[in-house]
């Protein structure tokens, strides 16, 4: 991400510098009168039965507004301003993209949970929702990481970063004094481990089955906060069976740690800030994307670039591997997700264009059947990989997206919505009979 932007956007959640959509709706149609949509007696959660009966899945009282949902959707599409580092990056994208069918029906709305209130500390970083089972999901909410159980309907705080966070275990390289008032920039949860990254290079590791924090370290001691920020984290099983995690950083570094003793295994450096990395299923290659139009395929053992991925027109903030180990996807501020075959990188397998803005989250399902593509706001797309990404499901709602996550068994899709009034966690369940 551009370093000179960091100071301007620390507290800004919206990609396009827009206010929360709820008050936009009201003020646009009611002349900014004294009454506010916040004064409505808004319903709480929305279960699937109420949605089937016609209730808006987010509880927006459209019938009490002087604007229809369809009309406001058109206005959002017209007025939403996608953030780009290359102002011209969106001008030629339409020529590369063919219209995809939107007739897919893969995941069905199940529940909207208003008690979960996701937040976005940095508008370009949207990987802040992680599902560890079809019932368990972790999200960032202000200075906390929260756990939501859709089974028990309980919301619990896992870590609070507003005060001091310090390790209760002793490991080489761990900062025993911990950190104070950390701003969370990235999280990852896998198996029994949670790792959080911060704006000043902080890394905090916690075992979910134990009290306290296991490990605290800083990736960098850069004085410039913009150079220190941790942009993304990925946790994965190493080939030897141990758990590792990888942190992508604005100081142009990618660092790999093993999670038994939390020791640094690799420290790779690149010519530009790294916004996201993902490890291939065979653990041999790493996708590296960041503040450059090109992406890289990197040897995971040496850190040397083995291939350059050319095609995007702006900076990328998301990547993911298909479980077959050959196909991977990248998400970019040029409003596209591009799907690549590592055996032939001359052209993208498919170019998938968003409606609103940058593609900031991409996820393949564990069975490889679906590719989930999250825009910065309002739209999440689910593409059928078996149909060469030509058919997809478009999930349409309102609000900034803090992250998207599929459960490990692909049964549940969670979407974090950040908004002053309509912040929530959307849950969609996989359909087993599709039309």
UniProtKB/TrEMBL annotation:
Renumbered ranges of WD repeats: 309-350
InterPro entries to which the protein is assigned, alphabetical: WD40/YVTN_repeat-like_dom_sf, WD40_repeat_dom_sf, WD40_rpt
Keyword match Cytoplasm: no
Annotated Gene3D superfamilies: YVTN repeat-like/Quinoprotein amine dehydrogenase (2.130.10.10)
Highest taxon of source: Eukaryota
Record keywords: WD repeat
The protein, known as: WD40/YVTN repeat-like-containing domain-containing protein
Naturally occurring in which organism (per UniProt): Artemisia annua (Sweet wormwood)
């Amino acid at each position: 991400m551009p370093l000179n932007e960091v100071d301007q956007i620390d507290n800004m959640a919206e990609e396009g510098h827009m206010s929360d959509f709820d008050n936009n709706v009201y003020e646009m149609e009611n002349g900014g009168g004294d009454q506010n949509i916040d004064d409505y007696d808004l319903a709480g959660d929305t279960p699937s039965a109420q949605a089937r009966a016609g209730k808006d899945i987010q509880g927006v009282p459209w019938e009490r507004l002087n604007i229809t949902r369809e009309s406001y959707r058109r206005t959002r599409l017209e007025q939403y301003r996608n953030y780009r580092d290359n102002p011209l990056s969106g001008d030629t994208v339409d020529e590369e993209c063919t219209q995809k069918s939107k007739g897919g029906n893969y995941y069905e709305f199940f529940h909207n949970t208003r008690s979960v209130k996701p937040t976005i500390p940095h508008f370009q970083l949207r990987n802040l929702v992680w599902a560890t089972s079809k019932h368990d999901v972790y999200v960032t909410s202000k200075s906390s990481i929260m756990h939501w159980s859709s089974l028990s309907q309980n919301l619990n705080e896992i870590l609070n970063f507003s005060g001091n966070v310090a390790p209760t275990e002793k490991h080489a390289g761990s900062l025993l004094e911990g950190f104070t008032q950390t701003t969370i920039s990235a999280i990852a949860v896998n198996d029994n481990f949670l790792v959080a990254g911060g704006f000043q290079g902080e890394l905090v590791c916690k075992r979910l089955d134990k009290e306290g924090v296991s490990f605290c370290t800083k990736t960098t001691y850069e004085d410039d906060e913009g150079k220190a920020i941790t942009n993304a984290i990925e946790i994965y099983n190493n080939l030897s069976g141990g758990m590792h995690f990888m942190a992508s950083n604005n100081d142009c570094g990618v660092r790999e740690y093993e999670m038994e003793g939390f020791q640094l295994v690799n420290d790779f450096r690149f010519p530009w800030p790294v916004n996201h990395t993902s490890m291939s299923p065979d653990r041999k290659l790493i996708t590296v994307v960041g503040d450059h139009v090109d992406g890289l395929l990197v040897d995971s053992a040496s850190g040397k670039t083995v291939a350059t991925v050319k095609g995007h027109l702006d900076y990328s903030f998301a990547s993911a591997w298909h479980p077959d180990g050959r196909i991977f996807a990248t998400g970019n501020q040029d409003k596209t997700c591009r799907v690549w075959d590592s055996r032939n990188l001359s052209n993208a397998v498919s170019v998938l264009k968003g409606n609103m803005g940058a593609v900031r989250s991409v996820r393949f399902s564990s069975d490889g059947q679906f590719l989930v593509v999250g825009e910065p706001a309002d739209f999440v797309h689910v593409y059928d990989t078996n149909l060469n990404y030509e058919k997809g499901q478009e999930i349409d709602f309102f609000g900034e997206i803090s992250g998207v996550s599929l459960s490990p068994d692909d049964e549940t899709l969670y979407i974090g919505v950040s908004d002053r009034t309509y912040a929530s966690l959307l849950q969609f369940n996989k359909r087993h009979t599709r039309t």
